[in-house]
Amino acid sequence: MKTAPLYGAVQDDLSRVEAVFDEIRAANLGALSQMLGMVLGGGKLMRPGLALLCGRFGTYDLDRLVSLAASVELLHTATLVHDDVIDRADTRRGRPTVNSAFENSTTVMLGDFLFAHAANRAVETGSLRVVELFSRTLMIMARGEIRQDLAAYDSRQTIRDYLARIGGKTASLFATACEGAGEISKQPEEQVSALREYGYNFGMAFQVVDDILDFTGDEEEMGKPVGSDLMQGTLTLPSFLLMERSPNGNPVEAYFKAPSPEKLQAAVKMVRESGAVEESSRMAKDFSARAIDALSALPDIADRETLAELARYILDRQS
Amino acid sequence: MKTAPLYGAVQDDLSRVEAVFDEIRAANLGALSQMLGMVLGGGKLMRPGLALLCGRFGTYDLDRLVSLAASVELLHTATLVHDDVIDRADTRRGRPTVNSAFENSTTVMLGDFLFAHAANRAVETGSLRVVELFSRTLMIMARGEIRQDLAAYDSRQTIRDYLARIGGKTASLFATACEGAGEISKQPEEQVSALREYGYNFGMAFQVVDDILDFTGDEEEMGKPVGSDLMQGTLTLPSFLLMERSPNGNPVEAYFKAPSPEKLQAAVKMVRESGAVEESSRMAKDFSARAIDALSALPDIADRETLAELARYILDRQS
After folding, report:
1. Arithmetic mean of pLDDT over chain A
2. Nearest residue of chain A to residue B106 (CA atoms)
3. Complete domains list, chain A, with CATH
4. What gap in Å lies between CA B116 and CA B75, rounded to an integer?
């Protein structure tokens, strides 16, 4: 866990979320237990952290808020697990693969198991509106997943397509974590909207930074090769910005037309040197600023500053 | 659709369930649309049919009952789709494979998409208790799926393990279809229990017949080879009964130890000729009788006889 100074007043509550995960990890799943241990919890717990913090602007039953926080992380983890199959499928297109540690059957079953737990925890919030929010998010994410697959190796996409895609894939779940917490803690409607707005923009900034790090990050810290998105046929913001700058031919399009390791290297290099990374960072900063702006609708308590700090923190992360 | 005379008074309501599926099928999913068209609806709609019938012992809002009926079928279809990946994984064990028409990535994404729709429809029932029932069933099914995988090619299992497994994999969802309908139609607690009891035993009978047909059915009508369960390492009731009769060696265990097409044929032949099929049929009949018994707690209206007929009908089906 690297959450130490990040989550202010809810640092201790996070251990209750971890306890939920411990319980799930204790299930006897044979060969699946190993993978479960690897994927569940132990990370930065960004989504549960936000949920717990957002609840503090109202009054809540901690058990229910913890259920929401755990549910959101479980849903996130379930989609990560299934992505393992979906991404690996790209080997069939003759490109190198990123993840290949587990059998397809393991990943499908484990993902379904985690979806089931996510649904159970959502129900435990006792709020039909939270469950509804949750199921709507599940739909948005499933559609986003399909949209990303349909768009693979398609260089006719636009930045607008990209933003819609990461909105569905990433930001929607952050928004749900925050909005759901507002709901459970019985906050006035305008605060709930502000929390949703914060979560959504936070998620957008988070994903843009992720996509930048795919070009600029350290392979070891990231645990995946530089340029892995391109390898899987996925265009992200830095690539789009490069393509905009050189509409009459660029190494990204060249790589998509006929992939090779040399062309991949050339594309990564060009993206890094073209200023596309810097412009992407500016956009991430914009989203982060919008998230912080949304906080002005909330009471001025210490947790508000913690949320603002988090929105700044994610801009500087290196992995 | 082969539902014509089966569903009595709710025959027309079923078309509303089909309309829900039409709407889902209309989504633009690119390459996934073909598979979606193949898997969703168009079958006997057993689970929605039961849900609609069970609602008639109380008073209900038809929209909500249709949402439940659609939800249950969507959940069933989602698990079918994911089974496609899970079953196919068995090729890694060097055995022949049953399903291989679609890419793993397609099946994972489509299954998740269907889970999302199932969750949405469950929420549309407006009943947190139904959603809870639904999410508990999802968990039971996910565990059942994992349990089946852990037990593959393990001949130390017992009939008891088998019954627990099909209870989780099949009967629990039938039970939820019936109990959920009782819930939505505001029936007294003892009727809701009776409906659950009916659904559970109905599902057990249904699955046992399914497992018998895997040995005795017509390959063309079934759309899969005879003995496909054994091929995937799955022991079902007829095999267990044969193994009980010949504890000191039998062709099923021999096939599991060193699979070959010849040994598979020998195992299927022995199961068919040993009386294990007849005994399995008796057990299916028992479950069906228990389902019919449970109906005595319900008002004596025509729908009760329709439910009883259905419980008899499934014993005679040929595919």
Report:
1. 89
2. A86
3. 8-316 (1.10.600.10)
4. 9
